[in-house]
Specification:
The structure is a homotrimer of 257-residue chains.
Chain A: E1 4-9, H1 17-28, E2 33-38, H2 46-59, E3 65-69, E4 80-85, E5 88-93, H3 99-103, E6 110-114, H4 126-139, E7 149-151, E8 163-165, E9 168-176, E10 182-187, H5 188-191, E11 196-201, E12 204-206, E13 209-210, E14 220-224, E15 229-234, E16 250-255
Parallel strand pairs in A: 1-2, 1-3, 3-5, 13-14
Antiparallel strand pairs in A: 4-5, 4-6, 6-7, 8-9, 9-10, 9-16, 10-15, 11-12, 11-16, 14-15
């Protein structure tokens, strides 16, 4: 069974752009499995994109190649990279989109190469002409080193990473999901095994910490979500409708003891 | 050719949740074909979800496995099931989501087992950790009995079923589709071969019955839709924009003679 | 590796209609690769649909079969066709949906047949019962002539084609994409190698012509998009938010010398 390519973009699904990535992949190798990670990253939103890339990276087996394109700088001098993050590969613009995926892979099992932009590439569609073909080559069995020159590490994204402080962790809302859960940059790795006891943001806070959405009741609660990030959630409606924090807002998570 | 797994959820397509189901399926067997039935079931809407599950069940060949997750009670004590409904399989929370699929399969060719929730399952993401892996095992050839203990039948959903009355059938709008057609719970099986002659709801009625949308003209008409449910439809615009019934509203369908 | 079927419809993704096409295709041949070109064509919009069909046709390798269903006349007397457009196939209602794909294929390598509607076809769902099965047969290796009787050419769509005038080309906005770019009917083939220098529409014009979105700056610019159509675009927001032309509006593109 050949490897899978999983697409993460801000292209939406109402145009043929996402399909064009699959067309480009199948021109390299029509036997490759292609699937949408999501095409619903908010336009140009690198934080939400990095969260989606990481979520996909956790969901799929080693050997999977993520083709990630949230690329406000398409056609400019920003670089292009391919990485191996502990066995999951990702091809993307070098703008921070792989920040979590890279950060959470063991240091000894991650590698990064820079990818060249072919002369024939459309200046407005590197997804099709740069990232998808490289993703396809990797999925078809090419080694990372065949795809570009080694480089130390990808561009990072400072805003993606929470800051551990005395008694808590300070982060921000990096994504709001379809259920209206406000997903923060505070991760299980930041908590370091300590239990969450509360979360606060400008004009709001929660002292309830829930294990499931259904047990939240009528208010808000902090939940450790399925991808390992602290969320502020309500049951059956958007957290924001009950005063929860909004995209970009700073959230401080308090931990026990 | 291995079996296909078709996903029906209320996850939307803007997050990586739907993809995580595919990741979990491919961890069991990467050769399985995976496709979205729809991820656009309205949040937590079991009636609309049951209609989508049934529509998918009709569309795909026997042997197909539906992984259905509309699961407001995720992580609580609600059960989990896998069913064989006349050759089409479905893995789902035991909350009524399979009501139509089960109801419309011949009694002698349907079976139900309860599925255990593994200890390691994320309390907020049984789709990934419970339903998808079982769907994958079934699609990969496991027998239903290997997936859980036999039980008599799934939880049903009373609101999904119309009531046959003298001269007509009383149901409700269970879904409004992308074209704005108001799909009711009144099914071909409820009509029992009798011709629809009218439909009425609070503050509205139609006496026109159309075979195609294009022949409706400028008003509303009743149409027997492609999945066997009576719809109230307009041509080229939402039925609601002409006073048609809304989601949840009671509709009485009059039949001939 | 068997051929791929790419779906282009106005079905949206919130119902099971799009999946029903795949179900119908896999009933013919479960080994066929199926993928969404897009299901987000605006309801009944043949111009935008023709643009999506053409975009998909460019993106996928020869041998690919497009199943295109934007079909306001479903169930009426409008015809059904299958075409070979330079090696890419398309099955569609004969309503102009293949206008660009047909027009841009070399005359000597295009063929058209009319497809019969089976008696059992649901009058409201020819996508499932007419177009998808024929697309599957073609992808599975049937010759075009086995799918219907030869006919001279498909119905065209006059509004899809720009008019070359002295010093410029007059077209209209046929689609607005997810990024808010206003895509016009003025194509690279209409420009005939001449450079774009400006574009104008009622109450607006641009004199800037950009190679990438990022270099546009704070205003609007004309861009030759990745599918070969002139767009009016802004950087990071919808062109319409800066006074750009709207869907359907006439746009005149000025060319050099």
């Amino acid at each position: 069974m050949s490897a899978a390519v999983v697409l993460v973009t801000d292209y939406g699904v109402d145009d043929a752009y996402a399909a064009a990535l699959i067309g480009a992949i199948w021109r390299v190798d029509p036997s490759l499995r292609c699937v949408a990670g999501t095409h619903g990253v908010p336009l140009g939103d690198l934080l939400a994109g990095a969260y989606s890339v990481k979520s996909v990276g956790r969901a799929f087996a080693p050997g999977t190649v993520i083709c990630a394109v949230v690329d406000p700088g398409v056609g400019t001098q920003r670089g292009a990279i391919a990485i191996d993050a502990g066995g999951v590969f990702c091809v993307a613009p070098d703008n921070g989109l792989v920040a979590y995926l890279w950060n959470e892979a063991p240091a000894q099992s991650r590698r990064c190469v820079t990818v060249d932009v072919p002369e024939h590439a459309s200046p407005t569609f590197h997804g099709r002409d740069v990232f998808a073909p490289v993703a396809a080559r990797l999925a078809a069995g090419a080694r990372l080193e065949e795809c570009g020159a080694p480089t130390a590490q990808p561009v990072t994204l400072d805003a993606a990473f929470a800051v551990v402080e005395p008694g808590g962790v300070a982060g921000r809302v990096i994504a709001v999901d379809h259920f209206g859960n406000a997903i923060t940059s505070v991760r299980d790795v930041d908590l370091d095994g300590r239990r969450v006891v509360a979360a606060s943001w400008e004009h709001g806070c929660v002292q309830e910490v829930a294990r499931t959405y259904a047990e939240i009741g009528t208010g808000l609660a902090a939940v450790l979500g399925s991808a390992g990030h602290v969320e502020v959630a309500a049951d059956g409606r958007p957290a924001a409708s009950l005063g929860g924090p909004r995209r970009g807002q700073v959230v401080r998570v308090e931990v026990e003891g």
